[in-house]
Amino acid sequence: MAQTQQQESLPATVSTTAAAVTVVFVAGEQEVLTGSAQLIRAAINDPAQVPGLYARLWELSQGVSRRILSRVRTLSTGAVQVASRNGDVTAVREIQALQRSTERFIASPVSRIPSHHVQSSTAIANDLTASLAGAAQRITRFANDAYRAATVNGALVGINPARDIIKDATARATLVDAQAQAWRELTSRGITGFTDSAGRQWNLSSYVEMAVRTATQRAYNASHKARMEAAGITLFTPSTTGRPCKLCAPWEGKVLSDQGEADVVQDGHRFRISATVEEAMAAGLFHPNCEHTLTAFFPGVTVLRTTEWTDRDKQAFKDTQRQRTLERAIRGAKQAQAAALTDLDRARATRRVRELQARMRNHLAATGLNRRSRREQLDLGNK
Questions:
Q1: Beta carbons of 293 and 221 less than 8 angstroms apart
Q2: What pLDDT shows up at residue 158?
Q3: Cα–Cα distances in Å, from 199 out to 178, 207, 214?
Q4: C-beta neighbour count of 208 within 10 angstroms
Q5: Which residue has the higher pLDDT, 111 or 85?
């Protein structure tokens, strides 16, 4: 009996666990942003507080960083363990389905031995812990960024929150405007300064989300693959998620194996092994935030589904990336709104939020994409 190539993405439980880790950092970021704004507003209203402003900003960011650091190991280990267990359970179900599909496959008794994937999970958890610890420590540097933005051109001492800097055209208002602009730009970006192994730049929430999703995907696939190999399965193929990108699409419908590229005849069935899993990963499969998983390939049973990267796919990918850009921009405007120093800045940020939301509605109407409102929320919809 034929089995269609699996179309599963990472299980929802894995994604939910990753989101739960991300929200810890998102909440910390918001605490630092809004708390810094409160300290700076206090210094605006009382210039006597300016000399101690940096120390208070540093104490705030240090406290948030320290609290998150105390949880990093537990968060990392928990997320990876959930992903690993999910990969193991899915592999067991897949092995059983394969046994029902053909008498030619008999799973090795070794596959019933539990915890054979613990070592790989531990290594992945350690890597994630290091990444998240670095992210938590980076939070402390926001004190420097906030202080520089708040005191640009020495404008902090001269700010009057009640002044309308649009109507006031004096030279002094220009200093105020410079300070306000610097602060708006800083808060709309959030905590930044994160670079991945490919040199891409991220802000805190996006970096943590990427790191956790990538680690849980690795743990899921490592556990899944280990269980399958213990059962005697050595051939694999990526799932077809229905949402491929140009990096992943070339690998859907391809057979991967540790033996590498080869033309194979097995049990009278001819097929081609395109690469090892590691080679496919080096070429882009399982990139950051990828949702593909590995599934078993059994000659004569598994029906492969190939995916071609068409102009339509290219446009669809561009549309989804545009949606992600707008989601980040809306969150940025909401951050600026929450951390505004003056009523005027808050009103500006509110208008910006509405403008970007209108752009999102127009984009979704033009493309037919579904709105993911949670990704427009400061907490990513994970309270």
A1: yes
A2: 53
A3: 31, 12, 16
A4: 27
A5: 85
The confidence score (pLDDT) of residue 364 equals 95
Mapping DSSP onto H, E and C, the string for the chain reads: CCEECCCCCCCHHHHHHHHHHHHHHHHHHHHHHHHHHHHHHHHHHCHHHHHHHHHHHHHHHHHHHHHHHHHHHHHHHHHHHHHHHHHHHHHHHHHHHHHHHCCCCCCCHHHHCCCCCHHHHHHHHHHHHHHHHHHHHHHHHHHHHHHHHHCHHHHHHHCCCCCCCCCCCCHHHHHHHHHHHHHHHHHHHCCEEEECCCCCEEEHHHHHHHHHHHHHHHHHHHHHHHHHHHCCCCEEEECCCCCCCCCCHHHCCCEEECCCCEEEEECCEEEEEEECHHHHHHCCCCCCCCCCCEEECCCCCEECCCCCCCHHHHHHHHHHHHHHHHHHHHHHHHHHHHCCCCHHHHHHHHHHHHHHHHHHHHHHHHHCCCCCHHHHCCCCCCC
Scan for tokens 């496959």, then name that residue.
Answer: 105
Residue 342 has phi, psi (to 5 degrees) of -130, 165
For the segment 133-188, what is each residue's pLDDT rounded down to a tens digit? 999 999 999 999 888 887 764 455 454 444 444 344 444 445 566 667 778 788 88
Residues 1-42: pLDDT tens digits? Answer: 444 445 455 667 777 888 889 889 999 999 999 999 999 888
Q: What is the pTM of this model?
A: 0.81
